[in-house]
Amino acid sequence: MSNRKQSFPTNWLYTLAAIRGAIITCIVSIVSPYLVFLCLISIGGHAHATDFSRSRALDSIYEHAGVHAHLSRVYSTVVDETQQAWQRCDSNQSHSRTVSMLKEHLSIDVLRQGFLNQLDQRISDEHLVQIISWIQSDTGKNIHRAELNSRDIDESSFDSLLHNYKQSEVHGDERNVRLNRMLADTGAVYFLSALNTELSALVSIAGVCSNNVEALAMAQNQINEDRSSEALYRSFMRNQLLIPSAVVYRHISNADLDALSVFAKSDAGNAYYKSLIQGTRSVLAQEVDRLSRYAETIRIINVD
């Protein structure tokens, strides 16, 4: 594995993820935008099923979960990462058609709607109400505030914050156990691995020359290999999340961290986090399949 910095539009400091060296992307958050998945849904009042529009609630989840920052960079990331591969192609004709297709199907509007559809399929009204109730609790607000405040942290201040945290009474083995449990309960590393695996798959397929049958087969084999290697990838990533999460949650009490873990393991919390992980994977995997079919069609046309 190797590391490559990736520029992203929010509060992200660390490049944490890589798959086969072809793409390292999206994971330069202090922990990751996954940490702001406990989004603040501005519904107001007490949470009852009749108090909110389902579509408005799902929109709020999308807007506050940090997913938009990832999806808005998918197109430019794939194009940037495939430039070198395209230079090896014999003709620019297939290249231009591929770019056009990527621009259409990887646009933020298409990906956003696809993700909202995934949330709609995966989160029930009952769970939406429970998620809102958690977010509106004092603990939920404290955690969300800490995540929002992390936007103001840049690289130059991170080392200082980390040093101060390590000198504080909060830091210690007991705290690390809580942080690791919270990260495990929310499934942060599963989100990161799903995101990066499917982005890598998009890059593999997009970089195939239309007249290269062997390259297409190799790309498809690489995608299968990357997907089967996620467990190893996650084991690497788990060790990378503790330090940045410690900084983000440095002012959060042990009781609040425990409450976050309890929520994450509840039926509503489990449905919530799974929908974010699986929804992101499904949206991008669908585009991988679409691009694969397109590449195969172009190959057949060129052979004929």
Q: Tell me about the biggest sheet? A: none
Weakly predicted, low-confidence segments: 1-51
Silhouette: globular
- The N- to C-terminal Cα distance equals 40 Å
Q: Overall mean pLDDT score?
A: 79
Q: What structural category do the secondary elements indicate?
A: mainly alpha
How many strand units?
0
**Total count of helical runs of at least 4 residues:** 14
Helix content range? 55-70%
Percent of sequence in beta strands: under 5%
Summarize it.
With 304 residues, the protein is mainly alpha-helical.
Describe the structure.
The protein has helices at 54-64, 67-71, 74-87, 93-105, 108-122, 125-135, 138-149, 155-167, 173-186, 188-206, 213-228, 230-248, 254-265, 267-303. With 304 residues, it is an all-alpha fold. The chain is globular, with a radius of gyration of 20 Å. The two termini are 40 Å apart.
From the structure above, extract its key features.
single chain; 304 residues; mainly alpha; disordered N terminus
How is the secondary structure organized here?
Blueprint: H1 54-64, H2 67-71, H3 74-87, H4 93-105, H5 108-122, H6 125-135, H7 138-149, H8 155-167, H9 173-186, H10 188-206, H11 213-228, H12 230-248, H13 254-265, H14 267-303
